[in-house]
Amino acid sequence: MKESVQKVFIKIQIAQKPVDILGEVPEEPERSELLTYGKFYKEADSYILEYDELDDYKNYYCTTRLELKEGNKYKVTVIKEGKISTILPIEVGKSANCLYNTPYGSLDIGIWGEFVLASICEDGGTIEFKYQLDINSMATAKII
To answer: How far is CA 33 from CA 11, 15, 23, 67, in A?
Structure first.
């Protein structure tokens, strides 16, 4: 059951080290930032953050939902629905295989959770997580 839904301002900061075609990883990460509005609420034992996204060319729309599940260890699940769709579970020390659907085709994604930190309550907070991705069993990026 959803508790009170709040309209919130969201700031997402991303740092990634994309692996090049030769398998080299840069020393300095590429950084980007997303500023948007969305919804924040608690549902059972999870905090939910939802927002809408457009690609860089404003062609493809999707809704992104981050679920932070409480427990002994936090677990984050990133769910995208729309022209881009996937379910990416991020849990410390665990790997998962997922399908990442795009308008151009689908990719087999492997995800390995490195850490999940959170300071969150019904009024908001912060979530920080780190994971590694591979596509078709080839390393592509380390999200830091």
So the answer is: 7, 9, 25, 20
Quote the domain boundaries for residue 45. Answer: 6-143
Task: Give me the residues paired with residue 76 across strands.
Answer: 68, 90
State which amino acid sits at residue 101: N
Task: Report the percentage of the chain scoring pLDDT > 90.
Answer: 35
Domain count, the chain: 1
What is the pTM for the complete model shown? 0.82
The DSSP-derived string for 42-101 is EETTEEEEEEEEE-TTS--EEEEEEEEE-SSS-EEEEEEEESSBEEEEEEBT-EEEEEEE
> Which residue has tokens 């908001």?
124
